[in-house]
Amino acid sequence: MLKELQLFLSLVLLIACGFLYRLTQRSPCLFCLPPFKSPRGPEDLLSDGRSIVFIETSERLEPPPLVSCAVESAAKIYPNLPIAFFMKGLSNASQLAPDPSHPAFSLLSALHNVFFFPLDMKRLFEDTPLFSWYTKVNSSTERYWLHVSSDACRLAIIWKFGGIYLDTDVISIRPIPQENFLAAQASRHSSNGVFGFLPHHPFLWGCMENFVEHYNSHIWGNQGPHLMTRMLRVWCRLGDFQDLGDLKCLNMSFLHPKRFYPIPYPEWRRYYEVWDTEPSFNDSYALHLWNYMNQGKRTVVRGSNTLVENLYRKHCPRTYRNLIQSPEESATREPGPGTR
Ligand SMILES: *[C@@H]1O[C@H](CO)[C@@H](O)[C@H](O)[C@H]1NC(C)=O
Ligand SMILES: *[C@@H]1O[C@H](CO)[C@@H](O)[C@H](O)[C@H]1NC(C)=O
Ligand SMILES: *[C@@H]1O[C@H](CO)[C@@H](O)[C@H](O)[C@H]1NC(C)=O
Ligand SMILES: *[C@@H]1O[C@H](CO)[C@@H](O)[C@H](O)[C@H]1NC(C)=O
């Protein structure tokens, strides 16, 4: 009798455990943050051609605060689109384990529409004009490899999947309404820090061909903004911008510098200053913070009331809450790794 009761109780316990296990599997997991929320690959997730794409070509896995802010702000502005972050460092399966020393990586992984993918360049460049270049180039002798490889990856990803590419120092503040567009840095000068196209757009195919034909690794930007500008001149006869209007050419838009560069690069320090009256940026979709100029020298400090602090507070509140320190804290803690 006692034995039967024991057996019965063990059975009940087993069932209860099984039930509890399934429950925890379904509930949002507090202590583990799987970097891949979905078993689907990028082909599947990005197939509807309307994703937002970020790229990290260094081996770095933990995003600095500005990168975290860029991704979080995009996730906030485009809640119904997948935000795909392609990271070179994720090609290493051994680095996939969740790690509490990666607060920004964990913060972004927890956002419902942010997805991380390994950046496998060889596979990405297959079936594109870039493949021949990639198989010949020796990355260890390239002076600007991180930039040049990033320039190539963004062309191939947006050509293959479509969507909007954003640099990791761009804070999104409202949705970009155009589907095929380039962003002007100035009249007749395109950037390649922000652009968007439907999948398989011939303009990007032309860019990839031009990339290979006119490859010059010694000139900074030759495969980046200069390439976009060269191609734009081949495709379109553009005049200067008049007032605040965007320009149209075939089925592409060339967006006014105010849309992404309301503060031009010689004035990048303005982002790190306190303003009497802050600009409303209501003619802008996103703000490029010129991190290449900054090189991580100026940071966001809690309580400083700088323009950039207020932008973080509004557009990437989680990053602001979790990653931005007050002066007292940053004096006692190690500063974060510099951004590139
Ligand atoms: C994995 O990471 C290590 C250390 O960062 C690096 O030396 C190695 O090349 C990486 N392996 C791959 C396949 O990327
Ligand atoms: C790339 O360049 C480095 C440095 O010059 C050299 O040691 C290496 O052998 C080269 N690799 C290939 C595959 O040519
Ligand atoms: C417009 O864009 C589509 C891609 O969506 C492309 O196939 C087509 O050729 C473009 N039209 C022109 C006139 O460039
Ligand atoms: C632009 O910003 C100003 C000042 O904040 C505001 O008064 C105005 O209504 C805004 N315009 C638009 C179109 O949002």
Q: Could you tell me the radius of gyration in angstroms?
A: 23 Å
Give the rounded overall mean pLDDT.
86
Helix content: 25-40%
Sequence of secondary-structure elements: HHEHEHEHHHEEEEHHEEEHHHH
Q: CA-to-CA gap between the ends?
A: 72 Å
Helix count, DSSP H or I runs of 4 or more residues: 13
Question: Helix/strand/pairing class, anyone?
Answer: alpha/beta
User: What's the total count of β strands?
Assistant: 10
Spans of at least 5 consecutive residues whose pLDDT stays below 50 are 17-35, 334-340
Q: Which percent band covers the strand fraction?
A: 5-15%
Shape: globular
Question: Major beta sheet, specifics?
Answer: 8 strands, mixed
Give me the CATH architecture of the domain at 42-268 and 284-289, please. Answer: Alpha-Beta Complex
Hetero groups in this structure are: 2-acetamido-2-deoxy-beta-D-glucopyranose
CATH classification class of the domain at 42-268 and 284-289: Alpha Beta
Strand order of the largest sheet: 3-2-1-4-7-6-9-8
CATH structural fold name of the domain at 42-268 and 284-289:
Spore Coat Polysaccharide Biosynthesis Protein SpsA, Chain A
Family: Belongs to the glycosyltransferase 32 family.
GO molecular function: acetylglucosaminyltransferase activity
InterPro entries: A1-4-GlycosylTfrase_dom, Glycosyltransf_32, GlycoTrfase_DXD_sugar-bd_CS, Nucleotide-diphossugar_trans
Keywords: Glycosyltransferase, Golgi apparatus, Membrane, Signal, Transferase
